[in-house]
Amino acid sequence: MLGKLFITLKGFNAAAMKFDLHIHSHLSYDSLSSINAIVQYARKRDLRGIAITDHNISASDTIVRTDLDSDLWIIKGNEVKTDIGDIIGLFISGPLRNTKANALIDEIHDQGGIAVLAHPFKYRRNYPPLLLEKLDAVEVINSRWIDLGSLKANPAVDQLLATVKGRSAGSDAHFPFEVGRACWVTPHIKTPEDLKKSICSNSGQAFACRTSEWLDGASQCVKFIKHPSARQLAYITYRLLRRRAFAGRKEIS
Known about the structure:
alpha/beta, TIM Barrel
């Protein structure tokens, strides 16, 4: 039976470090957030680091840094839509080219990065077991989706969490004010490599101050403004109607 995951930050003191590992900038097709605004909110929320994980594009090296002298580590990442759903590459060294999950995970590993399954069960109800074994971590809390621990016991959820050892968490922010709404919390660590190890070994805690799916609709409106099309307008209408029809339902069937 799954209980609520990581509601309190047990065992962590004032030296604990917070990392929002899923953030989008204006380089994503559905975000207007500038890097400066993201950084400003990250510092306001006392984050030690953030991951810029734009959709199918890597942020410029000129704005992505992990130097130890900075008061804010900015981890280079990329969120890619694949045949099994969205996968985030963290700690990558360059753009990701593959959109097939199996090849993408290999590409992420070849770059020295880690592969994270983003907002699991948001768009599909099961995952190929062999691909799960290749993943490094699961995003257990996404502030635009749900805390996986809030779902009722389900074989698919149990299999996912049992197969993939690592854990991650992030706000999935598309607007600056969302930054820090969910984060991965660790004891004091010294380097980004320590953070990578914490994620892969599940030696931190996932935390969220709130979760809500409704801001997704606002991002779809941003996408329509940046790239207007009849198809996108129809999709926005469909999502609104679907959310009204299934409001409050978070079970996996």
